[in-house]
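Tokens as discussed.
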């Protein structure tokens, strides 16, 4: 089996960020909105740097206006993921984009997304679960409302709570109320940290939010005592190497610390983040990692098991997926 055919588990995917540009253009045309400025001459998303990326992301997302739009998005995203061999995916969903954090509206968006996910599971065998995610640069009040939406819908499908957005906006401890609220509702916790912020930002997410996974976390590499703590405590890093290279966190694949982190005993996993924005897929991530670090099937198999072990879904779902990892 080639690495591209291997069954994969993806823990870090932004739902809107996975929207193919053609899909967003189609919705823009249907709704007669002009968002042509966010595309380059070849039709891909155009942005200058991470902060511009966040703006382009919000413009693209602005054409996703109804539960039905999110249902169609879900179908498109899961078809792509399944084609890359993904059997289980956790996606970041933000009530900010799904009904403006109104709980009734959020429930309707979520119902539409789940219905589309059920259809994709029947058609392609891919299992999806959701992580409600607040957006750091939208501020604390919106994060609180997001946490209330998360708590309201926590269960076997909404399984986690997270924090994304501009890591320079505020500190992890500012979001402690929201994370406490989500934890009390039974949700598992993750936060983007150590993507643009340094090791101290990762330490703060661990200390102040009590997360068990970190989105990215790669900048922990600059503090080996922290790396050792992450390894010892079994904290899982949702590493998105292609995203980091395209956004310029690291100049090329060989400079990326994922290999070093793994060698030092950290539980690393591999995800695409916002695949069409970064011209990547799970197959591309696997192929590039295998070229850069000589990773073989054995390494990727271990990573798939680590990812499934760190997944936020229930044990019954995990056991079924584990069999698929072992028999494919
Ligand atoms: N939202 C979408 N992609 C993101 C990323 N890579 N970092 C932070 N927030 C995001
Ligand atoms: Zn991300």
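Sequence:
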């Amino acid at each position: 089996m080639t690495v591209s055919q291997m069954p994969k588990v993806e823990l870090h995917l932004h739902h809107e960020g996975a929207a193919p540009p053609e899909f967003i253009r189609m919705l823009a045309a249907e709704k007669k909105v002009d968002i042509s400025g966010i595309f380059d001459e070849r039709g891909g998303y155009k942005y200058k740097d991470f902060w511009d990326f966040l703006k382009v992301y919000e413009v693209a997302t602005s054409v996703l206006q109804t539960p039905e739009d999110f249902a169609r998005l879900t179908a498109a995203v899961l078809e792509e993921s399944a084609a890359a061999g993904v059997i289980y995916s956790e996606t970041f969903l933000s009530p900010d984009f799904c009904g403006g954090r109104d709980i009734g509206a959020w429930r309707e968006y979520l119902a539409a997304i789940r219905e589309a996910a059920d259809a994709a599971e029947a058609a392609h065998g891919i299992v999806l679960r959701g992580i409600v995610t607040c957006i750091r640069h939208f501020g604390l009040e919106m994060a609180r409302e997001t946490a209330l939406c998360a708590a309201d819908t926590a269960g076997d499908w909404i399984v986690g709570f997270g924090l994304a957005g501009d890591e320079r906006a505020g500190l992890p401890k500012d979001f402690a109320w929201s994370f406490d609220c989500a934890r009390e509702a039974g949700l598992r916790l993750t936060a983007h940290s150590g993507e643009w912020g340094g090791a101290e930002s990762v330490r703060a997410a661990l200390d102040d939010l009590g997360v068990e996974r970190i989105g990215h976390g790669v900048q922990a590499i600059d503090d080996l005592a922290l790396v050792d703590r992450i390894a010892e405590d079994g904290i899982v890093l949702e590493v998105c190497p292609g995203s980091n290279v395209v956004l310029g966190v690291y100049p090329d694949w060989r400079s990326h610390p994922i290999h070093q982190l793994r060698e030092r005993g950290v539980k690393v996993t591999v995800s695409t983040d916002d695949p069409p924005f970064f011209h990547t897929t799970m197959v591309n991530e696997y192929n590039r990692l295998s070229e850069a670090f000589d990773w073989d099937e054995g390494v990727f198999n271990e990573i798939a098991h680590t990812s499934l072990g760190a997944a936020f879904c229930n044990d019954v779902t995990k056991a079924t997926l584990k069999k698929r990892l072992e028999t494919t």
